[in-house]
Input
Amino acid sequence: MKETLEVINQMQADGVIGKYAIGGAVGATFYLAPAATVDIDIFVALPMAVGTSLLSLAPIYHYLKARGGAVEHEHIIIGGWPVQFLAPNDRLEEDAVEQAITTSVEGESTRVMSAEHLVAIALRTGRPKDHARIVQFVEQDAVDRKKLRGILERHGLISKWTKFESEYLGGSRG
Amino acid sequence: MADREMRGKEELYKKMAALSFTEKIRILEKLRDRELAIAAAGLRSKTKASGDTEG
Output
């Protein structure tokens, strides 16, 4: 993954993308025991193109294809890893990118979403695998409950969390 | 017995969660390679099975 991150960091240095953060299963791995995944989700802040209000991932694909990246469906293969680039959909994802934590893999710098943002996004996405991941975060005590509550309140997710708690966490936590 | 197994699993999860990000990513890469190998083997046996029926 070092090579993957080197390419993404270079793309950032070249101004193609702004700040980025690893989310999804790879992001969760920063806090939890590793769980199998075959791709990397990268949330990217995109510089606004001149003369338009639309954000486009096209410059990323042009940049990477010109450097040997192969496109496979919604992924682009970089350093052996299928990478999916995602533009933040809303304020929650924008905050998650903005407030990501800086770390490194084999000496290569990178940024990972906070545990609390990963949980909030998983809660909102709401697939069975997202629910399972939230339970892992709670059971492994990998989330700051106070910080999580603040994020959930700010993004209108408290009622969803209450329902989740009663269904999966015995309704007594948080 | 089940309790002991559960405790053992929790201990293992804790140990793995405490690894560095680099070490965890190495594990992810091994898991990914294994998943891809299993998927490829499944595809091979499907292709073989369909080849058998065609023959």
The CA atoms of residues 7 and 13 of chain B lie 10 Å apart. Chain B touches chain A through 17 residues (CB under 8 Å).
